[in-house]
Write a structure and sequence with these properties.
The structure is a homodimer. Chain A contains 13 helices and 27 strands. In chain A, helix 2 packs across helix 4. In chain A, the strands form 7 sheets. In chain A, strands 6, 7, 8, 13, 14, 16, 17 and 22 form an 8-stranded mixed sheet that branches. Chain A is globular, with a radius of gyration of 22 Å. By secondary structure, the first copy, chain A, is an alpha+beta fold. Chains A and B meet through helix 7, strand 7, strand 10, helix 9 and helix 10 of A and helix 7, strand 7, strand 10, helix 9 and helix 10 of B.
Chain lengths: ~425, ~425
């Protein structure tokens, strides 16, 4: 059951925090995403609003929260948002409603007091919202699957269209936006297919523009989650860069990706709640002719009606010399599976999902040429370089390159909301002993 | 650097706890493995000794521990052994030395006091030592790889012989020995390859006899662990049953195994320390003609000399009707890669390993016919049933079947030590909604 649009989404609502009203801001009063930040050496939870962070511990001290809203705010006060994901959904909703009320432009009382809870984002360091309990990476764009197969005109394998294919990722190397990404060392064939195996710095370092979701607490061992209830397991969403070492990955991949993916995964710092995303829900993608029908355990009328999301995604590549180019423009609506289907699938065998689990959609590639969402697709595996105005070019990432993902949820009649940047800069490989 | 044999391994040493001296016991005084148990509603850490558990909180209360030994015992007192894995190796070693001293047969003082710390194992419920920080499953038996490929006479792919292939498993469904294993529901083709996709109870439920290791704290993000230091990351070992739903696995496996493995993984309850295993170390397997040489980052003289282990492993299948048969006899020495190589490989890309990580070797299949260590191998994918004396047969596991793994480390001139049982009984699939 998708969350309904309510007064917190009212496009007429403005904030007395003026930067939240600026056109194009990621954080209007309709967004109110949660994050963890460090300012003055104190790591705590906050809510983004315009160019500020609402400091939740300070807000509690001001005595302006009570009941469910207070309970949710307390769960978000520590150095990790994990406790927040375990509170009742109604409490998180109450906190959102209260924040929207306190900071709306027509609120008259207490502004000066509330101003004390506003930390300029420019003075804060954004942290990972929490260490994921587990990280599962799906592969749900048929456009990505087709292009990566090397035979784009052949339909994907039956399994890809029957279930949302996934693999378990590595949670310990999930990092916050801005953390440097060290080029991994590893084994690969040089040249590929030659049988000449080397160990050294990855020669084909790539990114993958993905969309992700943080899960609430889930099911007990042995007990699946129905597709009708899967939506409730989603707390909120983020952007994910699934950095990929293609040389390592293509060589090692007997039982799926391992070291080619596990060296780093960057997530955007804010968790944009499912409630904030309610206005941007659209129908789930249908099934075309010749494609397998949805099995009942992945089919739910509400999910079919509102399981998709209209979220525009971009990737910008900035070289170490400062040349910049937008290299991807795609949309979450390109995906073949919904987040609820991913959750229901993953729990269908009785594996427990846990509060703080992170799932990602896999590369959000679309049909269009500029919607290729990783370099392996964009450069057709290195045969079509990206050219920059300064006469440099790229087929894969160089040391010093910065890759930045952005996302914006868009719907007619509603104020767009964003996710903040998901960015990382490539550092040279460490010398091997 | 492998841990050296010392006085705690002395084969002449006996215990005043008589059951620890019985021939064939898994838990002579030379073993002293750590575990978590519940007795009287209080979950805490203990050490197996014969038919008893040394209750560590009680031992601390008796005031017989000090310094490093006390520090290690305190870290093992709670409901999880995770803190123990983070203490200094010297402290864990001091606790072992002290326990060996207190309970040896020629210790005269304090026996009646120490007896108060002995809980009969029959009155305790053994728990999972800790929730794994992460679970990584390797695939390091070339015999398993060859037989599962369907073309056993063809050498494994180059990657299998160049690196220890692995995939990330699911930590949330790792369970203690004795926990029931619910047959998972999932998607599979019926019959395989038919294109007829169904969702329902797994028709081909299998086990995999594996060996595992619990890791100490490891490396920082971006920093590998050298093969020379990888041994130090191993705290101790256990048995692992990587239950496998073959119908689900074979259908879903585009990016490796996922739901076909994540419904349950059973581990033996005791962590047999690397120190206890010191006498059983043997040379690592060499490389045969035509096989790739070890790359330097996986090659270490000490690991080559002592990276292997002589540990006999068995699997017994007991049907719901009570018919029983030993269906596997194999040995850890059949593996192509050492535990240290697995650790060094996994950290080679800079992914942080963490205290409480669980790694498993993959199916420990050997060359001999009776060393096939899963049903897919034993029954040649269902074409050669296992026949029981009561005229029943099996090609895969039925509901009500119990599968029990056991292990015994063996070396001439030393007392053998064991791991305790790793067992699970299959429960019927839950009805789908």
């Amino acid at each position: 059951m998708a969350i309904e649009v309510n007064a917190t989404h009212d496009p007429a609502r403005r904030s007395w925090v003026e930067s939240a009203n600026e056109p194009g801001t990621d954080f209007p009063i309709q967004n109110l995403p949660f994050g963890i930040f460090n300012a003055g050496g104190h790591v705590r939870g906050g809510v983004a609003l315009g160019a500020f962070i609402v400091d939740l511990p300070v807000l509690i001290d001001k005595g302006v929260l009570s009941d469910g809203a207070l309970n949710a705010a307390r769960a978000a006060c520590g150095p990790s948002l994990a406790p927040l994901l375990a509170v009742r959904a109604a409490d998180a909703g109450a906190l959102r409603e209260r924040l929207s009320h306190l900071f709306r432009a027509d609120a008259v009382a207490g502004r000066s007091e509330l101003s004390a809870a506003l930390v300029p984002m420019s003075e804060a360091e954004l942290r990972l919202p929490m260490k994921p309990a587990a990280f599962t990476d799906f592969c749900t764009s048929m456009h990505h699957i087709r292009r990566m197969s090397g035979t784009p005109d052949v339909p994907p394998r039956l399994a890809c269209m029957s279930l949302p294919v996934a693999y378990n990722g590595r949670a310990s190397s999930v990092v916050a936006s801005g953390a440097p990404v060290v080029r991994p060392n590893g084994q690969f064939e040089a040249p590929p297919g030659s049988g000449n195996v080397r160990f050294g710095p990855e020669p084909m370092l790539d990114f993958e523009l993905e969309f992700g979701a943080w899960l609430r607490g889930g099911n007990l061992l042995g007990e699946p989650i129905s597709i009708a209830r899967a939506q409730e397991q989603l707390f909120g969403c983020c952007l994910v860069n699934d950095w990929s070492a293609r040389g390592i990955q293509f060589f090692e991949m007997i039982l799926g990706p391992h070291l080619g993916k596990s060296f780093a995964t960057t997530v955007s710092p804010w968790i944009v709640t499912m409630e904030a995303l309610a206005p941007f829900r659209i129908p789930a993608p249908g099934r075309g002719e010749g494609e397998p029908a949805l099995l009942p355990h992945l089919s739910d009328p509400s999910d079919q009606a509102k399981g998709g999301m209209n979220i525009e995604l971009t990737a910008d590549l900035i070289t170490g010399r400062g040349a910049a180019q937008r290299i991807v423009r795609t949309n979450v609506n390109e995906l073949y599976w919904t987040l609820a289907q991913m959750v229901a699938h993953q729990a269908s065998n009785g594996a427990p999902l846990e509060a703080g689990d992170l799932i990602a959609t896999g590369t959000v590639s679309g049909r269009e040429e500029d919607a290729r969402a990783c370099l392996a697709e964009i450069t057709a595996r290195g045969t079509r370089p990206i050219n920059f105005p300064d006469n440099t070019s790229r087929v894969m990432l160089d040391d010093g390159d910065t890759l930045t993902l952005r996302g914006k949820a868009v719907a007619a009649g509603f104020v767009s909301i964003g996710f903040g940047e998901c960015t990382g800069t490539i550092e040279p490989a460490r010398r091997t002993a």
